[in-house]
Every structure is written in C-alpha cells, then in structure tokens.
Amino acid sequence: MVEKSLNKNISESEENNLNKTAPKSENKNPEHPYIKYLRKDRLPHIFCNGCGNGIVLNSFFRGMESAKMDLNEIAMVSGIGCSSRIPGYVKCDSLHTTHGRAISFATGLKVGNPDLNVVVFTGDGDAASIGGNHLIHGARRNINLTVVCINNNIYGMTGGQISPTSPEGSFGTTAPYGTTDKPFNLSELVTAAGASYVSRWTTVHPLQLSNSIKKALLTPGFSFVEVISQCPTYFGRKNKLRTPVDMIRSFKENSINKRRADKMEDKELIGKIIVGEFVNKPRAEFSDNVCNLSMQECGKKHATKSAYLENSENL
Amino acid sequence: MIKVDPNLCKGCDLCIETCPEHVYDKSSKLNKKGVYLPCPKREKDCTKCHLCELMCPDQAISVTEDEEDDQVDNINDDEKSDQTDNATDEKTLKETTDV
C-alpha cells in the first residue's frame, strides 16, 4: 500500500511538473499562426514543393479571421483535384465529392441549412471543364456560396495535361507543340453569368487575396475568387519556369491591376494577368428566395420534412 | 524570433524570394529530409511584417515577438504619451490665448 501511495505521489508530482512545463514548452516551440486550424496529424501535406495551394489556405484563414468567422460556422466542399484536397486538412466539416459536382453538392448543403457558410474549393479543371455548367448556373441562380477557384493553368494531379484555362502557346504533356486554343477567362465568364462578387488575384498577392476572401465570405450571393497559382512540377517544368521562385517572379512581372488594364489596349494585354475586383453587386439570393417561398406556402422556413426536426418538436 | 520547422519545410525558397528585408539565406547543408532549409541569418533586419508566414505554403515558419520588442513597444508608448502631453499643452496654450 505504501509503495502504491508513493508511486501515486510520484506520478502526481510528475503530472504537476508536466502541467507546469507545458505552457513554457509551447512558448519555446512557436507554431505557424494558422496551424491551429489544420489537422496536425496529417501534416506535412501532400502538395508539391512550392505549390500555391498552401498560400491560398493561409490567405483563406486570414480572410476568415478578419471576417470574424469561426470554423464551426463554415463547411467546406470540394471536388477532385490537387486544390480539392485542401478541405481534408482543415478542422471543419467537409464534403469531398465527385469530379466537377462540388457546387451542386454545396447548393444542397446551403439550401438544407441556410445558416451555414459554405465554401467551395475547386481547381480550374474541376470548375471550368467538367463542372463548367454547374459553375455558370450556380452564378446565374446566385446561390450564397463562396467559391475559391485555384487556377494553376494545367491538370496537375493527372500528369500535366492542358486544361481549359491554359494560356495560348503554353506547353503540356498533351500539347508538345504548344496549345492553339483560346483559354477561358473564368472571372469574366462568371461575371457574365451574374455572380454577386468576383475577383481575381495571384499567389503573389496574399494580402489582397485575403481581403477579397473576407468580402466574398460576407457578401450574400454567389462570390467567386479566382487565384492564379503556380504548379512548378508540371506547368513550370514544361514552360521554362522550373522553380517556384521563377513562377512567382513571372506572376509579379505579368500581373496588372484592372483599373490600369481598363485604360490599355488589347495588344498590350497579351500574356498579362489582369488582377483585381471585377464585380461587387449583391442581388437577391437563391437560398433566401427558397426560404421566403416555403414561408409563404408552408409557414415554415424549411419546406423539407426532416425526421430530426420532427423528433425535436415532439420532445 | 523566427523559427523554421524542419519537419514541415519542403525547401521551396519562396520565403527567401518574398522577404522585403532579405532576412533569409539558403543553408548550405542538407537536412535529414534532403531539404536545404531557409536560414534567418539577418534576423535583426526583420520588421515582423509576417509576409513569410503568409507566403509559406507548408505552414513551417513562425515569427513571434521577442522580449526586446516589448521594450521597443514600451518606448513607443512613452513617445505616444509624450505626443498626447504635447497635444494637451497646445490645447491649453490655445485656451489661454483665446482668453
């Protein structure tokens, strides 16, 4: 008995010591400010050396903090692709859905629970090619989603094929002589489809990007943030920009703000990336319209019959 | 204090490129993961703008305030209080002149 009690005392004293030293050790081992939002057991993440997805993730957390939102209020939805792996690393509710259908799944989520802030992370292959129709119709119906489209101008995950946003003349594994097709201008496409908020930045503009993500989160209606990102592994290797630093430098040299670009001629803008805010015009929003309709017809905010809600009413 | 986590860093050198004060240098030795880590050699030049943290794709960098910086803040506070004192002095002067 005495030995046991001694052992207990020792273990308690050890615990006390541990508790005392724990905060000190935290101070001694400072962490990245946004690592608290990530699932530490899954780090380091799968992205290549110098991939832009991590920068977009940092900017998203900065924008989320400045919008005074919490991860408990946010649900992330993604499709298939490198950038669509992001929600798997974030400590929040997330849906990893089929290729290109992220916006459709997110629509269901938003209409089912209009209080949730739904964020969609997609890539250019996911949003522009296979999910192109979902994107433009999401913008047309003006669903209250925040879509962050990480555009790296190539299909990075499947081996460097040319995507609908690859610039004219760029090289890929499916275009050894350079593409001759005209790329999609995603921001203008979504603007024309009727989105409430549209902006485009590159990974060289993390501060502007986080401000625009803040605005996108707070704007009711379809908000679309396009981020031109680097893919040194496939896009860079095929286009003489082998390192992440080379790609970042090319973004810095080629990006022009929209206000300046509006005054320039088309010839001068060849090969340039126009960055800035394209639209900021909030209008009537889809999930609000659905709620109003169900209030008119059924007297309830949610028209759907939910077993969970009925049980809670009985209780 | 600047710290680079050797378990997370993949050696993309974006911090070396983007730091406006050129604080980082590439280290000459490979670590056990086969990465040339960035080394904050000119840490005194750091202005704590936290741009390297934002630009780090692997969440490996952390920039924290030093104890010395607290003293600097205190000095700034003193200066601020001096300025406010001056402002109040000016106000009182104006009042006296108005009278």
Automatic annotation (TrEMBL), chain A:
One of its GO terms (molecular function) is thiamine pyrophosphate binding. GO terms for biological process: cellular respiration; organic acid metabolic process; sulfur compound biosynthetic process. The keyword Oxidoreductase applies. Keywords: Oxidoreductase. Residues 80-227 form the Thiamine pyrophosphate enzyme TPP-binding domain. This is 2-oxoglutarate oxidoreductase subunit KorB. Its EC number is 1.2.-.-. Residues 1-31 are annotated as: Disordered.
From TrEMBL, chain B:
Residues 64-76 have a biased composition (Acidic residues). GO terms for molecular function: oxidoreductase activity. It comes from Methanobrevibacter cuticularis. The gene is rsxB_3. This is Electron transport complex subunit RsxB. Residues 64-99 are annotated as: Disordered. Residues 77-99 have a biased composition (Basic and acidic residues). Residues 1-29, 36-66 form the 4Fe-4S ferredoxin-type domain. InterPro entries: 4Fe4S_Fe-S-bd, 4Fe4S_Fe_S_CS. Pfam families: Fer4_7 (PF12838).
